[in-house]
Amino acid sequence: MVLNPVLGKLVSKRVVLASASPRRQEILTNVGLRFEVVPSWFKETLEKSSFTAPYEYAVETAKQKALEVANRMHVKHLRTPDVVIGADTIVSVDEQILEKPVDKQDAYRMLSRLNGKEHSVFTGVAIIHCHSKDNQLEMDITDFYEETKVKFSELSEELLWEYIHSGEPMDKAGGYGIQALGGMLVEYVHGDFLNVVGFPLNHFCKKLAELYYPPSKHNVQRKKYDSIPSVDTFENQSDGESESSNFTKQKGASKLDSSGTYSSEAVYASENSSGVRTGFTVPLENQNGVSQSAAKLPSKILELMDGFRASKALFVASKLKIFDHLKDKGPMKAVDIANDVGTSVCGTERLLDACASLGLLEKTPQGYSNTDSANTYLASDGKYSLHGYIIHSNDHLWPLFTNLESAVKEGSRQNHRAFGKKADDLFKDYYHSQEVKQRFMSAMHSIAHLTARDVATAFDLSQFKSACDLGGCTGALAHELVQVYPNLKVTVFDLPEVIANTSYFQPSGQHTAPVTFVSGDFFKDSLPEADLYILSRVLHDWPDEKIHVLLSKVSAVCRPGNALLVAETVLDEQKTHPSVAVLQSLSMTEGKQRSGSEYKQLLEKYGFTDVQIKITGNLLDVVLCFKKSLSL
Ligand SMILES: Cc1cn([C@@H]2O[C@H](COP(=O)(O)OP(=O)(O)OP(=O)(O)O)[C@@H](O)[C@H]2O)c(=O)[nH]c1=O
To answer: How far apart are the first and last CA of the chain?
Structure first.
């Protein structure tokens, strides 16, 4: 969840950071933005003398970095991002621009110039919104810069050299890093600290606010975005339509938008002296009760601290089927819901209020009702229902995560502590009961449904006549594939106990002939013939030995020129994003999540070539590769 509503506007977009700077990645990650990192190949060689002011150079370089990435992704990788962000940080002293030092001597030259003096740090930023029209790339470019003044103390030669030998200056503009050892050199900073570190976050948010919430003519005092506008300013506004929207909506409620993501969060908002809500700050009062200064609330940390309460409220409401009740019966009072589901009135009321505060329910004088998102994703009967996965999270993942401390200490999955069983084989031991088996399948079905369209369309698969979805479970992806590619015949291959339970999940009233279910164990039995093999959410679950068995078999049966499609959440190269995949590993599954280069390496090892990766922006990304033809 992104707390800041303007950054929240980027949640549903494919955002690319065109920068290799780890600091920029960290600054944006820290505020909850999900993005892909594609470092720019643009060489920072613009002619400095052709710019009248240093900031113009930084802005132009930032723009060129972002343009290069947008064009490259569109043309070379056939992936048009929604938004590309580029940035360039420079240090300016005595009318000279300093970039990153090329060697230690250069670092010494730069630091000597800064010694005992004030200088400016400029970061230029470009935000490019991209659209692909008739295969042509169209772009809207917004740029800006931020200046921060920094003063160095008088520093001895010895200290400068000691600092240079630490290695820190080499990848940093001006030859210092204010966020680390370089902080010791600095006497004062005037302006945005993060701008010096490499990214002016505050100005960036204001720019996004200007872009996504242009000022309303009905509300002149909000016209200028001198501060990041308050949360309630944004409520119930959609992109670019604030001219006609009003600002009289209720304060303080965070809401799920139609895509199921939070659009705002006002829990930590407060009012400044002019009565304008300021988002993240708490006024500190002196003895006279006068607001002195504002301390930043660590919103992200507070949100994490409380995350378990919110998860559990969602789980319990789902378990009690409250969203189903409300979907069928409309607004209901707490007492009636309590009677229907057989719970206490006071407990139910608290739970319903918690759900309303989380944006899952709406509360009006008529009673509680589902939000649109709750109807779509939380009621158990919808096509895109996540009910199965939520119940799986409550009954299976929650107990495992309750034992996380032991899991980390021992480095192993805690099935024995959570369930009293050392289960390796899910279906034969722990998943012994029909109910548990169906619950697990329902969980997998929820995710497969939500991701199937993006997986099916990530690449053009129309060249294939037959596909075999190994571990294809309920057939959700298979059904999507035959919808998208009417000439494709898909076989779902899964364990007999899974296949025996698939009938419940089949789409009704649809011609399902092209999907066939075959039972077998992909580690032991021979695999059905197909032009395209699919492994969706399989590889991350198994240890290397098992993967070796499986990929050797797929490679042996896959004919040269035919293909393998892998659907998994692909980690970035640092393996810290997206956190949904990183957190999944935390329960110590025997398998692991992989980065793009790791998938490439793994697949090439088993004779697959031309490995292409598509980051979909959905929960699953897609890797397509082809069996090496014999002549290669
Ligand atoms: C003054 C200062 C700078 N930096 C780093 O200096 C690099 C500037 O170089 P850039 O050309 O803008 O970026 P890059 O690192 O080459 O990445 P890219 O965007 O790919 O060009 C960026 O990293 C910044 O964080 C710090 O980490 N701390 C500081 O106090």
So the answer is: 47
Map out the domains of the chain as residue ranges.
5-207, 219-282, 301-382, 451-627
SS3 track for 566-587: EEECCECCCCCCCHHHHHHHCC
What CATH fold (topology level) applies to the domain 451-627?
Answer: Rossmann fold (3.40.50)
Diameter of the chain by CA atoms? 84
Q: What is the DSSP letter of 221?
A: G
pLDDT for 59 equals 97
- Which residue's C-alpha comes closest to atom 5 of ligand 1? 172
| pLDDT of 425 over the 60 cut | no
Residue 521 a catalytic site member: no
CA 445 / ligand 1 centre spacing (Å):
44
- The dihedral of CA 379, 381, 386, 389: what is its sign? positive
CA 227 to chain centroid, in Å, comes to 26
Could you please state the CATH topology (level 3) that the domain comprising 5-207 is classified under. Maf protein (3.90.950)
Instruction: Determine the CATH number of domain 301-382.
Output: 1.10.10.10
Burial environment of residue 399 by CB neighbours within 10 A (0 to 12, 13 to 18, 19 or more): middle
Is residue 196 within 6 Å of ligand 1 at its C-beta?
A: yes
Residue 252 tokens, joined: 């303080």
Report pLDDT digits (tens) over 387-403.
Answer: 999 999 999 899 999 99
Q: Is the pLDDT of residue 303 over 80?
A: yes
* Coil, strand or helix at 59: helix
Q: What percent of the chain has pLDDT over 70?
A: 83
At 57 the three-state DSSP class reads: helix
Residue 416 has pLDDT above 90, yes or no: no
Measured CA to CA, the distance from residue 605 to residue 170 in angstroms comes to 36
What is the distance between the alpha carbons of residues 616 and 568, in angstroms, rounded to a whole number? 10
Confidence grade of residue 256 (pLDDT, cut at 50, 70, 90): very low
Per-residue pLDDT tens digits for 506-565: 877 655 568 999 999 999 999 999 999 999 999 999 999 999 999 999 999 999 999 999
- Tell me the whole-structure pTM to 2 decimals: 0.55
**Is the CB–ligand 1 distance for residue 124 below 6 Å?**
no
Angle at which helix 299-319 crosses helix 322-329, to 10 degrees, equals: 70
198 lines ligand 1 (CB under 6 A): yes
